Amino acid sequence: MSVRQPVVIDVPFHEDDIQIEQSIDQVQREVDGRELSNSARMLLKTYPTVYIIRGKQHRRARSGYEFDEFVLYVGETNSIVRRTKEHYTDDVTYRTEQGKRVWQQLNRPGSRMLVIGQDHFNKSLTLDLENNFLSYLLASGAEHVTLANGRGNPQANYYTKPELPIITSAVWRKLNHYEPELFPAESVIRDSAIFKASPFRALGKDQIAAEDAILGRLRDLMDGWAAASQPQDPSAPVENGELIVVEGMAGTGKTVLLSHLFLRIMNELGVQEAGGVSAGPRRPVNACLLVNHNEQLTVYNAIMKRLGLQNRDNVVVDKPTPFINKHSEAGHGNGLARQDYPCSPVDIALVDEAHLLLTQGNQGYAGSRNMLVDIMRRARVVVAVYDLEQVLRKSQELDASMKCALFPDGRFSGGKVLCARRAADVSGFPFHVENLLLRQQYRIDACDEIVRWIDDFANGRGVGPIPHDPPREGHRPYEIKVFDSPYDLKLAIEDHASTFDPATGEIVDDTSHGLSRVLATYDWPYSSKSKPASGVWEVRIYREQSGWVSLDKNGDVSEMRHGRASVAAEEPPHTEYFHMPWNYETSATEEEAADERGKAWAEQGHTLGECGSIYTIQGFDLNYAGVIIGPSVCWREGRLVFDPSKSCNSQAINGSEDPEANLRHELNVLLKRGVHGLYLFAVDGALEHHLLEMQA
Q: Locate the Schlafen group 3-like DNA/RNA helicase domain: which residues (predicted)?
């Protein structure tokens, strides 16, 4: 598809529309140094445009460190001259005090504006470009940057939509050349976990329907709060609270939906307390976003700081235990005693990866029943994202009564995606519960046959012939490849992870390269509290005459190929010995550490030499995922078997009523990480042989 190059200029940001027009007339060159033609100048003044306003203020920290602080606003307009003047007079949009401060900084003298034009621009295309640039800037990694936009406005299909990715990349390359610190390489951004969880990403139809249903319910509930005869005691625990459960398997866009929903709640909703004047001012919603996953916590903290919703970590974003403790009465000791006294509830709590919440106490959390119940007693409304197929260990399993209350059988029968609001007893407390379902697969960019094959394998239903993804315009076929050596799998993943072509000295910017990592089932020992004799916990496999064999921490054979008993292994020959450190077992250099600060495990460059697990990769996307399937996943008598005796995941096995299900869920999480490809190696000889046969 041939698309003309966009035009990008940089001008001062003025209140006076005449000065803006004069500035455009006086510009001689585009940001990439090309001469600005008269036709391009008229394009910017008369066609729809996209613009990026940059307010900059020099700051000095108490330590003496000096830096530039940026506020950015991305917009689109049919008249850049008129729209610029409107920005100077619009302080109504920024209704919070922090929003007004951002608006004031944006409109300081010295602010500048990038103006972007192209001859195919129309209203829908410029709105989508605005959305794309917001997601890019959110994930740019540039320090001391705040985005002033409250929300995006993604569009459905329109005639020029196929040109959107081409124009986005063409504009961004010019911006990257002009100001690389604010506009880093596109390949870097697309690998970012923040980009993939951006609240500015376009939602699919089922996500939009779910978001509209949730926002509609929240508005109805808030109207009910306002209509009550007496205002609720702000310090009293929640009684008859509300729980909205959003269900969906891995890759159905639950995290993006939650991120999008949270930004809309913070920017669009307000609370009118009972007994007040109905037309009076509404207070901002007291909302928070909780996640019991350190990697996701890092991502959400970065997003909320960039959006100006918090100025430090763990303010509107938090982990469940600190949230529960903050909203518990003092004077009752710690743990169980204190957590039985909830107080000062928030209006709305959004919970991502709710299947990771603990349903029983441990050393860090001595909850009264389980984390979800304790959160529900501290929030008037809870919206929880949940996938029963991603429960990974005993401490996350629901008891039968709670599972029945939250996930009744037949709730989505007949193709339904909504289970209506109903009264439910949850661990002895009355709540109203409703369920929504996301069905569409958004992560795995492949045909339906590929998605079904992965889903059948991941859920233990079987391993049939590996289908092929047909090529389509603008789509690179999804690749499933089985390897007979972990070395070859690792080399293939390293090749896909590289975005630099040493032959040309240029960045490779396509979907075949980017964020890729090796992952493994938890079938090799690991402990955060101790170290083995070698000093590093590793995935260790060696080749014997009959095939590959897994080694345990003592160098013993923990699984033999054809059902033979475990025996002590001799020192494996180095040429036939594969070993790869588990996640967080290697250290970054000082230079790498500075670049990797605030990034999730998979985004850190030095972790390409590590093997990821369910604990570092759950909830994240990879371009290509290379999965080493350990000995706990076997092929016996024509079917998949999950063998707990060969797993090192004691938390999934010990005390569980269904350890095989937990191991199946572990495989499910790992196999559904790859957006463009899945590479496989199986330790079990029979499974390896069957997979290779299915690949032929």
A: 243-684
